[in-house]
Amino acid sequence: MHTLFVLLDGAEDHDIPAFNGKRPLDVAEMPFMASAAKNKAYTSGRDYTHLFLNEFLTGHPPELPRAVIEALGLNMNVSGNRTAYRLSPAYIRSGMVEWAYNMDELHESLTACVRRHLRVLDDLDPEIEFFLNGRAILTMNCDDVPDLPSPPVPAPYKEVPGVLGDIVNSVAKEMNGLTVYPWGCGRFTDQKKMYDCMGRLVTISDSPTALGISASLGQGYEMIKNIDDRFPAAVKALDDSNVLLHMDEVDEYSHQKDPQKKVRILEHIDVMMEKYFSDTERIVYFVDHGTSSITGEHLPVKVPFWTSFRTSVADGENVALKNVIPRIMEDRQNIL
Fold first, then answer.
1. Torsion of CA 4, 7, 12, 16, to 10 degrees
2. Which residues have a Cβ under 8 Å from the Cβ of 196 and sit 6 or more positions away?
């Protein structure tokens, strides 16, 4: 019998004034998930999804930079002397980098502008893949591995070195300050091994972050952009392996500072879970970090995890992140 892991990315939050001081998780009506939870416990969140997931699955922080992880999730070349760069939409203005999340109307023009300016990198054999709302991963034969500020909090602008910096500035000039700014840069190195008690895992997500973690661990992964299409795909994958079903939209709507939208997506997930997994005996719901619907920033707070099956974890227990999987999956061997 396989286990379904459901990641509600960034579901923790600040207390929201519009919700009378309650959090979206408190306000959202999620009767299926609530009724299915046999154990409700907590662990420590991490600043970013890749940091949480890697420690959750291996007991260790990742050796790989964020850009390399996401490049793996997008099936990009990170071998040899290639450096990977995560490119995120941002405004460069008043000496600051201000990350741009509400890109529904601008991401196509931004993507086209970046592609036009990429020609100056031809000697470096560039490969670029765009994904959600203008974000991208760029890999190329380059020695520059800059340490640059990362989202979601605005930060003082730091000049990007080399030809890539010229592209950043040229795009910003053409797009009235909007550009793609690199961060999480680095090169491939060896990864830690996943816990043996996890067996085989397939990750289903619209995010190269979760997909890349699975890829780096030698596990299966499937990119599915539409949230509703992920559920039947997870049902199919669950026949042969454990499944990690990633709900990145919860985090994305938090970055957009839209708590109402966050509540609606949590409620929609609950409806879809009941539709597709009402007979599934082994489900783990978990959260990787908080994302504030007020400020848009990540919150490395205590986060919940719930299981639909009996384990030795007591209700309300605070379990070290590196011990969550061994506790709930090794218990499985004793119960079955």
1. -100
2. none
Low-confidence ranges of the chain (pLDDT < 70): 331-336
Q: What SS3 state is found at 70? A: helix
Task: Output Rg (C-alpha) for the chain, integer angstroms.
Answer: 20
Of 180, 181, 118, 97, which Cα lies nearest the Cα of 146?
181
End-to-end Cα separation, the chain, in angstroms:
9
Let me know: does 99 contact 90? Beta carbons within 8 Å. Answer: yes
- The pLDDT value recorded for residue 190 is 87
With residue 127 as reference, give the H or E element that holds it. strand 127-130
pTM over 0.85: yes
DSSP 14: P
pLDDT of residue 331: 57
Q: How far, in Å, CA of 215 to CA of 202, rounded?
A: 9
- CA distance linking residue 75 with residue 230, whole number of Å: 19
Q: Which tokens go with 135?
A: 């974000």
Helix (H) or strand (E) holding 208: helix 208-216
